[in-house]
């Protein structure tokens, strides 16, 4: 052996620890995603005439239209209000998701995984 040579120490323990850490992170991320599916946000348009409820994983759970709004029978206005409420609910749902997943994306980015 060459003078001053040191054999690698640890026998791959560092890699095993990293793999265990990643597996734990995956488990925590799956739990967070499951929680997002159960959480909801509700947004309204037209002063509450139209409301849309969206899950944290961007699944529309419900649309409520005030029956009084239908008396006017203005389809174009109703379409606009539904569109606004859906887009607002999607935005709120995305923000909820980003907040819930932020710890994981920052951890993975810190590991050099490009998140």
What does this entry look like structurally?
By secondary structure, the protein is of the alpha+beta class. The chain has a domain at 35-110: Ybab, Chain: A (2-Layer Sandwich). 58% of the residues lie in helices and 16% in strands. Helix 1 (13-38) runs antiparallel to helix 3. It is rod-shaped. It starts with 12 loop residues before the first helix and ends in a 5-residue tail after the last helix.
Layout of secondary structure:
Elements: H1 13-38, E1 40-45, E2 50-55, E3 60-65, H2 67-71, H3 75-110
Antiparallel strand pairs: 1-2, 2-3
Helix pairs in contact: 1-3
Main sheet characteristics: 3 strands, antiparallel
Cα-based radius of gyration, to the nearest Å: 24 Å
Low-confidence stretches: none
Order of helices and strands: HEEEHH
Provide the CATH superfamily of the domain at 35-110. Nucleoid-associated protein YbaB-like domain
Q: Give the helix/strand class.
A: alpha+beta
């Amino acid at each position: 052996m060459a003078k001053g040579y040191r054999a690698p120490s640890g026998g791959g323990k560092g890699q095993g620890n990293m793999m265990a850490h990643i597996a734990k992170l995956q488990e925590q991320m799956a739990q967070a995603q499951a929680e997002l599916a159960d959480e909801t946000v509700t947004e309204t348009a037209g002063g509450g005439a139209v409301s849309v409820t969206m899950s944290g994983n961007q699944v529309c759970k419900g649309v409520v239209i005030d029956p009084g709004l239908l008396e006017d029978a203005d389809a174009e206005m109703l379409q606009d209000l539904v569109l606004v409420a859906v887009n607002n609910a999607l935005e709120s749902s995305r923000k909820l998701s980003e907040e819930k997943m932020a710890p994981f994306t920052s951890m993975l980015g810190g590991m050099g995984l490009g998140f």
